[in-house]
Amino acid sequence: MQDIIAVARQFIPDGEVATVREYGSGNINNTFVVTPAQGARFILQWINQRVFPEPALIMHNFRTFSEHLQARLRQDPVAPGRRWEMPAILPTRSGADYWVDVDGGFWRAVTFVEGAQTHPFIRDAAHAHEVGYALGTFHRLISDLDPTRLYDTLKGFHLVPMYLLHYDEVLQSPKVALTAPDVQHCMRVIARARQWGAVLEEARARGALQVRPVHGDPKVDNIMIDNVTGQAVSLIDLDTVKPGLIHYDIGDCLRSGCNPLGEEPDDPSGVRFETALCRAILGGYLPEAKCFLTPADYEYLYDGLRVLAFEMGLRFFTDYVEGDVYFKVRDARHNLLRALVQFKLLASIESHEADIRAIIRDLR
């Protein structure tokens, strides 16, 4: 990888850098926070072109939805006393939206949202409400953006049928033994869940669900909370904004937010879906989203949650069997543990189906 200081200089008019340090814990891109000798610090990212083969299209989407969002905020601002600040593109010294190094590495810079931080899991009901509010606000502000103006930068993202096809291919030449009890458990879960895994895509094909602009990855740790007020102020990690079903967004938000142990506990046995947090998240989300949600959208909210837990477990397990080629890992069993967490969460979600559907009915 290129010298980080040299890359950072490309986004600073006078080229002077005070410090650069790694930032966050993303599984895909490499992220740094840059403090210039003068001026505000900013986020610098190297985009993983194995995951995003056409990163220039990411930047097209970023600029398109950012300009739309800012225009909507001028017409329809957030409630008085609330702060809402989305990251903005910082141009290079030549005025471009990104910089490509001599090795073909793709770099971009965005503003840093000060005075706020992300959290790996929900702290309490108030935090859960703010997480829901953040996603609802984001969806509301881009709900009237024509999705055909956005490129599909991740073909097949969230499409369970395609993940299952890849899983079947990987099983033909596994990089790990398939006889261990944990591995066998994962395979049994996948065999059962594949019967309903395509429910959202089938609804889309029938015209029951419509394509809209979506965030694509609204996990709890992509929602920034103000350090003083405790209110949500931003959604980050915007590379996955694209056309899609909002149910994938809502499902991912609930999946990550209603598991009190977080995404990667050392022991998955205690993983559970907390319905009180589900009520709090949807209590923040639905008042913001009711202006565009249809009756069919409400009908499939539970399915979005269930599918996302299955999808993430399937993807983690497939990557484990394939030899850890997609997600960053800390050891040989990391992706297997991640899969076990998601499948334990899936079982808990299914055990609370009646409760979750009742919460949705109550909050409509």
**Largest sheet properties:** 6 strands, antiparallel
Low-pLDDT ranges: none
Question: On the 0-100 scale, what is the average pLDDT?
Answer: 94
Number of domains: 2
Count of separate DSSP helical elements: 12
Query: What name does CATH use for the topology of the largest domain?
Result: Aminoglycoside 3'-phosphotransferase, Chain: A, domain 2
Shape label: globular
Could you say what the CATH architecture of the largest domain is? Alpha-Beta Complex
N- to C-terminal distance: 50 Å
The helical percent reads 40-55%
Classify the secondary structure makeup into a structural class: alpha+beta
Number of strands: 11
Radius of gyration: 20 Å
Approximately what portion of the residues adopt beta-strand conformation?
Answer: 5-15%
What string gives the helices and strands in order? HEEEHEEEEHHHHEEEEHHHHHH
Overview in brief:
The protein has helices at residues 4-9, 55-75, 125-142, 160-171, 181-193, 199-206, 246-257, 275-289, 295-299, 301-322, 334-351, 353-363; strands spanning 17-22, 30-36, 42-47, 89-90, 99-100, 106-111, 116-117, 212-214, 223-226, 232-235, 242-244. By secondary structure, it is an alpha+beta fold.
